[in-house]
C-alpha cells in the first residue's frame, strides 16, 4: 500500500459543484501539503499544515480550502469548482527536516486528476 | 524565498553524464538545495540535498560552489529511464511553522535519446 494515498484518483465534475479531494498518510509525518500542477508548469503550493492545529496558505489558495482532520488526514475542497481549476493535484507529507535530524524530503501521493467542465 | 532558474529542457544520449545547473542568486544562509525527479503523471521524488561543496549518493551528485549562488545536479551514465523533469528547490530546512515553503519552478525536462 502507498504511504500517501489520494482519493479520488480521477474526477470529472461541472462548474459550480463542490469537490473534496482527500489525502491520508501512514508515514507518521506531521507536515502535509497540497500542490497543483498544470500541463507544462511546475507544482504550485496551495495550502500546507505543520500539525493538526496549523493551516497556512500557499501561493495559490484562492478558491480552495483545507481541513486537517487528524495527523494522517488532510483534505482539499473546492467550494464552487470552475474550469480553470482543472489540474493534477498532489498531496505530500514531510517530517520536520533538519530540525528533526533529517532532510525534510517531500513524499508525494499518486495525484488526483480533476476536470471541471 | 529564493527563486531558482533552470534550463527548460535538455537532451542527452544514453550512457552520457548529464549536468543540470540551477541558479539561485538570492539564496539565504539557512537555505538548503534539494533536487526532485518527476515522471509523467507521478508525484516528484527526492533525489539529493546539499548545503555546500559536494554531495553524492547512489543516484546522483550535487555540486555547490563556495558562493552557493548556483548548484549542479550530475547524473552519471544516463539511461532511457532517466527521462523525466528535474526540479531544483531552495528552502530553509530549519524553519518552524509559517515560514517554511518549498517552491517548485517549471523544472528541466531531460530527454534521454537511445
Largest interface by residue count?
A-B, 31 and 25 residues
Q: Which regions of chain A are unreliable across 5 or more consecutive residues at pLDDT < 50?
A: none
Choose one word for the global shape of chain B.
globular
Termini separation of chain B: 39 Å
Query: Strand sequence of the main sheet of chain B, in spatial order?
Result: 1-9-8-3-4
Which class do the helix and strand fractions of chain A yield?
mainly beta
What is the mean pLDDT of chain A?
A: 92
Following the backbone from N to C, one meets helices and strands of chain B in this order, namely: EEEEEEEEE
Helix/strand/pairing class of chain B, anyone? mainly beta
Strand proportion of chain B, as a percent range, falls in: over 45%
Report on the structure:
The complex is a heterodimer of chains A (117) and B (114). With 117 residues, chain A is mainly β. Helices cover 0% and strands 53% of the residues of chain A. Chain A has no helices and eleven strands. Chain B is mainly β and 114 residues long. In chain B, 0% of the residues lie in helices and 47% in strands. In chain B, the strands form two sheets. Chain B has a five-stranded mixed β-sheet, with no helix packed on it. Chain B has a four-stranded antiparallel β-sheet with strand order 2-7-6-5, with no helix packed on it. The termini of chain B are far apart. Residues 96-100 of chain B have low confidence and may be disordered. The A-B interface holds A 4, 35, 40-45, 48, 50-51, 54, 56, 58-59, 88, 90, 92, 97-99, 103-111, 113 and B 32, 34, 36, 41-46, 49, 87, 93-98, 100-107.
